[in-house]
Amino acid sequence: MKFTDLLWANALPIYEQIQLHPFNQELKEGTLPLEKFKFYIYQDSLYLADFAKALAVTGAKSGNSHELLDFLGFAQNAILVERALHLSYFKEYNIEHAGEKAPGCFAYTNYLMSVSAFESYEVAVAALLPCFWIYKKVGDYIYANQISPNPYQNWINAYSGEEFGHSVQKALDICDRLAESATDNVRQKMIEAYLTASRLEYVFWDSAYQLEQWAV
Ligand SMILES: Cc1ncc(CO)c(N)n1
């Protein structure tokens, strides 16, 4: 069994709740209120800017130029997607460039940045994997089951697309290779990081669905 199969099995209950979450169900049906999608897009633009930094820092830990290049490519892509959001959705929906991270976005981005800075390469890679893999699975699921026409078609196409699929496969391969030569202790930390980041993926969607605000 591949290590990533083990990760998938461990986090399956979390993934199932993500797929069933009303945000993703309504996105699939095309009935998600625009206000929630706009909230999500703005928070995601803040997320992507920090995700790019975490990817670059993780790549710098790899110790080989091949994987450094892979991670710098992922980081570049996150920045380009963030810019594309501004050019498309921000314009189309008149999203304002103001406002801070909601608690869910804050928790997730700070977790990724702190793991990439303070944990090993192996653990950082495992923490970053759900961002790739869960989005691909959710994108494919929505694409296959969506009601069309769907007002959120561009978003759905981006994450079910082949290009994103290649990046996901690269990240999976790197994670499997690292796990093969990792100690049991490191593998355990990788599983925990993968689970925590998966939970934070759930939190991120839920935060958008609730239009989450700071309590004080
Ligand atoms: C919260 C979140 N996770 C993952 C992705 C995919 O990169 C994204 N755009 N946003």
Instruction: Please name the fourth-level CATH homologous superfamily.
Output: Heme oxygenase-like
In DSSP terms (H or I, runs of 4 or more residues), the helix count works out at 9
The structure class reads mainly alpha
Question: What is the terminal-to-terminal distance?
Answer: 47 Å
Secondary-structure element order, N to C: HHHHHHHHH
CATH architecture: Up-down Bundle
Main sheet makeup: none
Mean pLDDT: 96
Catalytic activity: thiamine + H2O = 5-(2-hydroxyethyl)-4-methylthiazole + 4-amino-5-hydroxymethyl-2-methylpyrimidine + H(+); 4-amino-5-aminomethyl-2-methylpyrimidine + H2O = 4-amino-5-hydroxymethyl-2-methylpyrimidine + NH4(+)
Pathway: Cofactor biosynthesis; thiamine diphosphate biosynthesis
GO molecular function, one term: thiaminase activity
Pfam families: TENA_THI-4
Verbal overview:
With 216 residues, the chain is mainly alpha-helical. It has a single domain, classed as Heme Oxygenase, Chain A (Up-down Bundle). The chain is built from nine helices and no strands. The structure holds 4-amino-5-hydroxymethyl-2-methylpyrimidine. 4-amino-5-hydroxymethyl-2-methylpyrimidine (HMH) is lined by residues 44, 47-48, 131, 135, 201, 204. Residues 8-210 form the Thiaminase-2/PQQC domain.
What is the strand and helix layout of this fold?
Layout: H1 3-20, H2 22-29, H3 34-60, H4 65-92, H5 103-118, H6 121-145, H7 153-160, H8 162-180, H9 184-209
The structure holds 4-amino-5-hydroxymethyl-2-methylpyrimidine (HMH).
4-amino-5-hydroxymethyl-2-methylpyrimidine is lined by residues 44, 47-48, 131, 135, 201, 204.
